[in-house]
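Changelog entry: the Pentapeptide repeat-containing protein record was regenerated in this release. Current contents:
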Amino acid sequence: MVRRATGGRPAGRGSVRGVRRPELRLPPLQPWGEGALEPDGDYDGLEFRELDLGGQDGAGARFMDCALTGCAVDGTALGRARVLDSVLTGLRGVGTQFAEATFRDVELVDARLGGTQLHGAVLERVVVRGGKIDYLNLREARLKDVVFESCVLVEPDFAGARLERVEFTDCAVKGADFGGATLTDVDLRGTAPLEITRGLDRLSGAVISTAQLLDLAPVLAAAMGIRVE
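Regenerated structure tokens:
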């Protein structure tokens, strides 16, 4: 049985409310045998280790108390999947489809992903730790109590997303798009570099450092039509 945190960390960093992190304690797991993922499959208490899941169709599947370790997920179809109380470690792949999926009480560790589709997804009590994710599509997604920690995000797309109690710690964020996003208690102070290409006008619910403000000043000036000579 997985036990998770019921309270948030103390809100000691300025006025930003603390993020509620998952505390995962997986039960003894059974290894997943041969075979492919199935649409709307039900996977409970299983370990998927060093498997090639590329191109498989697990749309609408439910993963509960599972561990996916060192798996390839190139083009894997997991749209509308539910990933609950699980740990995903060392996933690698391009074009993984998680559109409209639900992640709740999940740790994603040391992922190497590109073009991952999470548009319309729901992430709640999720930690993304380590690794690098290129072109992460989180358009229209809902993120609540999410931590990005010690990872690199290249051109992440948060356009139209809703972020509440989201924290970036020791991260690099390059070319982020926040156009049309809604931010509440979002802490960007642990991000270096912090590069935002669109949506600077949507950062009213975020906290940044003085140094980050200076770095963003040219982009802010351009967005406001201010000439600096």
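Residues 1-13 have pLDDT under 50 and may be disordered.
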